[in-house]
């Protein structure tokens, strides 16, 4: 492995270290904080690698010309073919100079200065040769000077000078005696002139033309190889002195980092639930069994799957207060079967004195992007109780602000609807209905407030008890608000609609700032989204 390859690996390892230290940024797909200049340098590494491959290809094309049939098919002469690749080679050399300067600028400039001055747009060879950050890296200054075609006359500088003339002024490539002779002899072989030559003259002209074309090709090929060799040596030395100065991770340490990094994706993903019906009471298991029979009888072959989700499996379940949440998936949409199932489940709920909350939808809608939140709860806070598991291959999302947004982006619309309902005096609401509205609001508010832990600490739990512990641990300044919310969540609110409306508006003011922040940075359709 040469030094350039080692530098590429080193920058990858630096990024990996940043991801391991800041899994919250990894989960969001963002560059770790403080690592932007390393990440930019890594991108230039790939550009440099590509350009060197293209330089090698251009040199190879000139050293080994294609068959005459190929040239004829493409309507190009050998001379034009050679000159094209020579010119491209010079352009690539100039391009490499720019990329190398940008890479060195990103590596050598301290992060705060790199970001503050937006140096990526200003890094030039002239600037780097005056930079104290470059000067303090031993030997780097001399290596960069090889690219200065204003003061130097080495192989690389000569190629850059040629490129300047090739691009802006008179083409320097044909200014070779062998090329001029070959062109002259070729002109003499023009049919109008050739007819006046003897057979011997025609033969000698053709031989001379071929001889000089080959001399020009060989000369050009050798110069390209010499330039390529000097470029590769220079780039490799730049990599070597950079690695030695910054003391990047060793290969042994790198292997350890990579092994740890390969586990990161699984570590930051929400975990599938491992619930079992054996963990719930026999009374609830009996109700679930009855619901299974009802659903099977109503939907018959149209029943695809049934999931049970929610607090029934957790320590948040409050007998007589909490719901049994059932997700029913049909093969084909059938409104008649859906309405009948809801009616019968409602009768079962009243007779069993437990509220069975059902959501019934066709498979196509269940698997659509719009139902990602429902599928997430089925995966992480539920279990399949009937039919075929449609989520076997479903990958759980990464725990970050994007997940928090997925779970809470309907919060604003939800609050607007319940406020409208409470303000509608024509709509009668019983004490039980008001209590149910209050508890659902507290649950949603608590999930939204937990977004800070999810986004910053890469932790997810469906348990409200665990949410409380984690929020108080990571954000003790919010302990009073968290504890009050949790108390209301567990005990419920007994209040008339006016008092309940005031409570909702009060908590809405406290929590909506977090919602607005997530909307700005997580909503892909938001025009304020920072996509850098």
Give an overview of the whole structure.
There is one protein chain. The chain is mainly alpha-helical and 532 residues long. Helices cover 66% and strands 5% of the residues. It is built from 26 helices and 4 strands. The protein has helices at residues 3-21, 23-28, 36-63, 68-73, 78-108, 111-116, 125-129, 132-135, 140-145, 155-168, 177-188, 191-194, 199-246, 251-261, 264-267, 282-299, 335-352, 363-366, 372-380, 401-408, 411-423, 431-449, 451-457, 464-474, 479-491, 497-522; strands spanning 303-309, 324-330, 356-362, 382-387. A 4-stranded mixed β-sheet has the order 3-2-1-4. α3 runs antiparallel to α13. The protein starts with a helix and ends in a 10-residue tail after the last helix.
Q: Could you list some keywords that capture this structure?
A:
532 residues; mainly alpha; 4-stranded mixed sheet; elongated
Architecture blueprint of SSEs:
Blueprint: H1 3-21, H2 23-28, H3 36-63, H4 68-73, H5 78-108, H6 111-116, H7 125-129, H8 132-135, H9 140-145, H10 155-168, H11 177-188, H12 191-194, H13 199-246, H14 251-261, H15 264-267, H16 282-299, E1 303-309, E2 324-330, H17 335-352, E3 356-362, H18 363-366, H19 372-380, E4 382-387, H20 401-408, H21 411-423, H22 431-449, H23 451-457, H24 464-474, H25 479-491, H26 497-522
Parallel strand pairs: 2-3
Antiparallel strand pairs: 1-2, 1-4
């Amino acid at each position: 492995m040469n030094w350039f390859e080692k530098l590429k690996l080193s920058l990858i390892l630096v990024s990996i270290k940043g991801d391991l230290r800041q899994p919250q940024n990894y989960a969001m797909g963002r560059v770790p904080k403080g690592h932007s200049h390393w990440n930019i340098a890594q991108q230039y590494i790939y550009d440099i690698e590509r350009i060197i491959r293209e330089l090698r290809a251009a040199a190879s094309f000139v050293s080994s010309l294609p068959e005459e049939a190929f040239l004829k098919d493409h309507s190009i002469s050998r001379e034009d073919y050679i000159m094209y690749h020579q010119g491209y080679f010079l352009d690539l050399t100039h391009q490499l100079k720019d990329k190398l300067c940008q890479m060195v600028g990103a590596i050598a400039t301290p992060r705060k200065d790199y970001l503050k001055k937006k140096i990526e747009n200003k890094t030039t060879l002239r600037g780097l040769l005056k930079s104290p950050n470059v000067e303090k890296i031993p030997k780097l200054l001399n290596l960069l000077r090889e690219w200065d075609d204003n003061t130097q006359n080495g192989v690389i500088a000569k190629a850059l000078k040629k490129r300047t003339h090739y691009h802006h002024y008179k083409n320097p490539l044909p200014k070779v005696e062998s090329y001029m002779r070959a062109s002259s002899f070729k002109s003499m072989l023009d049919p109008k002139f050739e007819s006046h030559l003897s057979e011997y003259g025609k033969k000698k002209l053709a031989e001379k033309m071929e001889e000089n074309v080959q001399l020009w090709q060989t000369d050009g090929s050798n110069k390209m190889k010499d330039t390529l060799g000097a470029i590769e040596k220079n780039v490799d030395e730049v990599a070597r002195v950079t690695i030695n100065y910054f003391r990047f991770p060793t290969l042994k340490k790198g292997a350890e980092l990579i092994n740890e990094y390969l586990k990161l994706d699984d570590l930051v993903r929400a975990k599938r639930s491992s619930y079992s019906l054996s963990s719930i009471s026999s009374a609830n298991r009996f109700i679930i069994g009855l619901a299974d029979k009802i659903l099977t009888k109503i939907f018959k072959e149209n029943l695809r799957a049934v999931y049970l989700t929610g607090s029934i499996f957790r320590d948040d379940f409050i007998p007589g207060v909490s719901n049994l949440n059932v997700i029913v998936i049909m093969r084909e949409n059938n409104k008649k079967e859906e309405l009948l199932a809801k009616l019968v489940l409602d009768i079962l709920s009243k007779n069993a004195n437990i509220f069975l909350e059902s959501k019934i939808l066709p498979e196509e809608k269940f698997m659509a992007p719009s139902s990602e939140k429902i599928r997430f709860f089925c995966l992480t806070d539920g279990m399949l109780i009937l039919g075929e598991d449609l989520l076997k291959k479903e990958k759980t999302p990464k725990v970050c602000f994007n997940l928090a947004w997925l779970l809470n982006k309907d919060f604003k619309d939800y609050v607007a609807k319940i406020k409208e309902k409470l303000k509608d005096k024509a709509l009668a609401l019983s004490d039980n209905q008001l209590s149910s509205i209050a508890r659902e609001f507290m649950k949603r508010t608590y999930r939204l407030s937990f977004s800070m832990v999810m986004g910053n600490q890469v932790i997810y739990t469906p348990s409200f008890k665990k949410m409380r512990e984690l929020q108080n641990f990571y954000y003790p300044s919010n302990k009073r608000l968290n504890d009050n919310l949790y108390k209301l969540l567990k005990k419920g609110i007994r209040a008339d609609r006016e008092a309940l409306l005031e409570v909702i508006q009060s908590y809405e003011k406290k929590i909506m700032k977090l919602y607005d922040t997530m909307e700005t940075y997580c909503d892909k359709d938001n025009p304020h989204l920072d996509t850098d």
